[in-house]
From TrEMBL:
Entry keyword annotation includes Cell membrane: no
Basic and acidic residues bias (residue ranges): 32-43
GO biological process: snoRNA splicing
Organism: Armadillidium nasatum
Protein name: RING finger protein
Length: 291
């Protein structure tokens, strides 16, 4: 808004922004910035609210090289145009241009004197390569350095990974291929096994379970005593006749409906228990007959 008070003077009245604080009894997340900037100059608030935006390339490709650095070159050595091989290549070029010409009395550097013995390309490489000429060899560019943290410096890494060591019995490192668990792995397993043990401190936590508690007394199919008991892959016990008759109808377990693949192994635990019970009955019968 521009108002003129006189012919020579002009004033500009900028309409100030009205701060609406709202009700103090109502908490709003949008009023935090207003309360923070309340009482400050507009210049300070504008400096704090600076937003930096970046222009999008509007492509779905990732940033960086497309091969994820697989063909990255090593750039810590001397530049290609300044190393010994580049200097020798320039020397060969200058000697080739000035060969057979009169001396023009022009100094072209320490490495560009006339050479009467010319290096030629051989089977080892071209004339400028390090295998033919004298001097330092250009370092390869396709070397990628990797770092490996060795937590077991006393073990032979070749023998542990491949089972073979070129040093044989004379190797000073230990030939061991066993896998040892770290401390944090042992602690995690201990926490999983003792989860809830400390909270529920009852007598059941100190009881030693018996091996026969999980074994059933009757066949799960015919509900009768076992006759030639067998066990499936899912640890369910049946009579051999019951298991085969059910397998003829369905290949899945009668209890958990898991595929048995026709694998029924003899239940040695139940067979041993049946033999013990039969032996105990025979002993009791013999003792009764003696009496």
């Amino acid at each position: 808004m521009i108002t003129s008070s006189s012919e020579d003077e002009t004033k500009i009245n900028k309409k100030s922004r009205k701060m609406d604080l709202g009700n103090r009894l109502i908490q709003r997340s949008s009023n935090k910035i207003r309360e923070k900037n309340f009482g400050k100059d507009t210049s300070e608030s504008e400096e704090e609210n600076v937003v930096v935006s970046f222009k999008s390339k509007k492509t779905a490709e990732r940033e960086g090289p497309s091969d994820m650095g697989a063909t990255a070159t090593l750039e810590i050595e001397t530049e290609k145009d300044k190393d010994a091989q580049a200097i020798f290549e320039r020397t060969l070029k200058i000697n080739k241009e000035t060969r057979g010409q009169a001396d023009d009395k022009v100094y072209r550097g320490l490495n560009n004197y006339s050479q009467f013995y010319e290096k030629r390309d051989t089977a080892k490489g071209n004339a400028a390569s390090g295998s033919v000429r004298k001097g330092p060899i250009r370092a390869p560019e396709n070397i990628r350095s990797t770092v490996r943290w060795d937590y077991q410096p006393d073990l032979c890494k070749d023998f542990k990974e491949t089972g073979f060591c070129g040093f044989g019995d004379s190797c000073k490192f230990l030939h061991d291929r066993t896998d040892y668990k770290f401390g944090w792995q042992l602690e995690m397993e201990h926490q999983k096994t003792t989860k809830g043990f400390e909270e529920n401190d009852s007598d059941e936590n100190y009881e030693i379970p018996s091996d026969d508690e999980h074994l059933p007394f009757k066949c799960l199919f015919c509900r009768q005593s076992f006759v030639d008991p067998v066990v499936t892959r899912c640890k369910h016990y049946f009579c051999e006749k019951c298991a085969l008759s059910h397998f003829a109808k369905s290949k899945r377990c009668y209890v958990c409906s898991e595929n048995t693949n026709g694998m029924f192994t003899p239940a040695r635990e139940i067979i041993a228990r049946l033999e013990q019970s039969n032996k105990a009955e025979d002993d009791s019968d013999n003792s009764g007959d003696i009496d």
